[in-house]
Amino acid sequence: MTSKVYTLAELANFIDAQLVGDSNVEISDLAALQSASAGQLSFLANPKYLQFLETTRASAVIVDHASAEHCTVGALVVKDPYMAYAKITQLFDQSIHRSPGIHSSAVIEAGCDIGSEVTIAANVVIEQGCTIGNNVIIGAGCVIGANCIIGESSTLNANVTLYHSVKVGCRAVLHSGVVIGADGFGFANDQGRWEKIYQLGAVCIGDDVEVGANTCIDRGALSDTKIGNGVKLDNHIQIGHNVIIGEHSAVAAGTAIAGSAEIGKNCTIAGAVGIAGHLSIADNVHVTGMSMVSSSLKTAGVYSSGTALTDNKTWRKNTARLRKLDEYMKRLLKLEKKMGQAVEPRK
Amino acid sequence: MTSKVYTLAELANFIDAQLVGDSNVEISDLAALQSASAGQLSFLANPKYLQFLETTRASAVIVDHASAEHCTVGALVVKDPYMAYAKITQLFDQSIHRSPGIHSSAVIEAGCDIGSEVTIAANVVIEQGCTIGNNVIIGAGCVIGANCIIGESSTLNANVTLYHSVKVGCRAVLHSGVVIGADGFGFANDQGRWEKIYQLGAVCIGDDVEVGANTCIDRGALSDTKIGNGVKLDNHIQIGHNVIIGEHSAVAAGTAIAGSAEIGKNCTIAGAVGIAGHLSIADNVHVTGMSMVSSSLKTAGVYSSGTALTDNKTWRKNTARLRKLDEYMKRLLKLEKKMGQAVEPRK
Amino acid sequence: MTSKVYTLAELANFIDAQLVGDSNVEISDLAALQSASAGQLSFLANPKYLQFLETTRASAVIVDHASAEHCTVGALVVKDPYMAYAKITQLFDQSIHRSPGIHSSAVIEAGCDIGSEVTIAANVVIEQGCTIGNNVIIGAGCVIGANCIIGESSTLNANVTLYHSVKVGCRAVLHSGVVIGADGFGFANDQGRWEKIYQLGAVCIGDDVEVGANTCIDRGALSDTKIGNGVKLDNHIQIGHNVIIGEHSAVAAGTAIAGSAEIGKNCTIAGAVGIAGHLSIADNVHVTGMSMVSSSLKTAGVYSSGTALTDNKTWRKNTARLRKLDEYMKRLLKLEKKMGQAVEPRK
Is the ipTM of this complex over 0.85? Predict the structure, then answer.
């Protein structure tokens, strides 16, 4: 495959940077400071890597004003090098961009409204009544249930499945294995047997949402499950029925969010977190990895649970003690009392 | 899409309810008490929502006898409103029900026995020797390995994968992305290298089982992995080889059950639980979310592990102490001893 | 389906065992000691099952020299019965082995190099520029992005998805629902909005790797995500961008490994473990189930975190105490001080 090549001047222009050095230098790739070689562009976003700046073999580096003086190769000087790096990555994306068109093997049922410049790959199935916006790309093997709406310029990678009546906004990216609109987990217990509660809601996904590989977003029980604009979901995430995720929140891989939980805006939920159902989380809440959220979080902040890793032998001892923690603490309180001391007022 | 419309009289008849109000009122949808509007039916299952009953704009509400007097609109009076609601949801299901038939793009290999009134969607692949019962629905893109048996009236949503020799009972619902019968994780270590143990068993799934999106059930090493009648599995669940799950147990999303674990009947396992291999769990055990089950549970009851969420700063302090808990508890015991006191007999 | 049948002599020869008993006995299947019947072969690998050896109805048993004397039926005597069992399982694998060939419904784009004796099943899509080695098997519904390379004798089960430019070594087994090469989760925050960082690296998978159902391996941000030779990954695993896993390590189901983590060789990571990003784990590290690894592990050993299961009532009490553990421990230290005692030097 052939890489695209840009001059340093073109790149400076693209990210609105001040160019220091030879504006004709050609850049064909991006790389980390330590591993970059000639023809590659790098960036310095974290001061702890400053040591690598002077010895990098990159042809140029994106730096901020403070670091620019340490740069011995071409420099693209900007206020925020990490953001500039992020923006410039799209120029070097090696994904194959196909010419629009509908593959002969695709099955498109009656009553669909397919926009212009749409790409529909092999073996795609689009059931009746769907609306597919302009410039949408649908990868091979995707199945789109009846009456779905997909907004302009969204991309479904291969083997995505949408159930019926799912709405996806514009510029969404859905990765392979994603399942949207499967039934929420709803059953009523009838003397030991489970009666299915049919899930009558749908899923509504905003604009600029990315959904990682094999992530599931279930349809609502009565009203819709809702994913706000700009939300970013990593792989292997479970979103239960009627969950609402506020705009521009991001959730890392392996997190499970139970039904009817409501997550605020601009939250970051780290990986493998569990969030119980029927609770609400305020805007700007940050939850660290593997935490268990079992009640509402009403104020912004950083929250955690879980225990730290130790060698297994120590862990076994500590765990045995922890199982009796309440008993031990009662003994501690008795000791205090016996010594005529309440060390500090009990909260 | 057009909704189905029922009169209140028809609905009362369907759930065997006492009708209070105008039997000709038309109902086209279900909604929660707070959000319902004219033409919608709601329900009151939890007394804490009683406040919403008097102000609901629903055209009718499913209530129990005690709440009926507070209902200012049409009422369907039953003993168990939640169960009545569950039953009535099926009437309002918006899923598209297709006419039976086999799509021209489906590939059905030799030696298959396909029942009557079967629906096989586009791009389905059914390998040799399969038996597909009457009224089965197989969604687009499903791949069914050789020698599988699928019981009557089961539904496979789009993009389900069954490996060879999997048996699925009657009235099962398998959601998209489900993989049944992949190899169990079996390897023997040969001086640092892993020798594959071929997985010679299969998977046997009972009647009335629901399996959520992207859930995996591995085939057995020698004998079969077995899922009992009426079991309900949520999304993103991992069932290891030779696991046995008893009838009418339910498992929530993200739970992983390691090989050869045996779960009893009528258990409920919450989300993101981990269950170690080669243990057994009694009937009627309930495990709360994110718990780690590492030994057998011989009696019915509710079990938990994990730590509660706090602000990150407090968590850091507590975690540091917890790492030394055994040491601290030894110091507590020494203090007790020094004071000539064994506060309570040690268990 | 018909089973293969072997004489005991053939099996003894295959695993290089000493045969005790009738060499003409026919074996058609493998089974556990307790459940085996005539015509089946069993094995005794764990001394605790010795009790079942004398009463087994198996026609023969793989045993070590010490146990051979207790064997009342045919015996295949070897040094390591478990390894011998592992090797012999491949003889009884019931998977259907198809004749090589390309199904008429498969879509293979221009510029692909397809080896000899390759099997490509129905509805497979192979995009432009791929290289498929000899004897590769690609199951129904697989989608292989542009410019992928798949080594000789690898098997992709049905519905596997590879994004562009993924390299898979020889003799790999990828199970259904696997997604390799989806975008790593990379975004830069621009005043509350997330700017996508295009993921320019790829994924490079070594020889003899097995990847379990629905596992995801993300492509690298700049350089490649790398899975070493002989690595075995179970189902539902998340491998973030730029992760490196050393040769012959094994990871159990449900584990999530965040971006840029580096796992050593010959490690075993149990199920549902969370490993934070940008850390490194030494060779021969073993992490127990559901542990949280949040910093580097520099020496071989067994590591754990998490809390043990109790009944829910006890758990609630312990958890409440744990939330105030730091406060309680300060009170303990004050008590010690008051008693003029520092029980042991503080670490």
Answer: yes
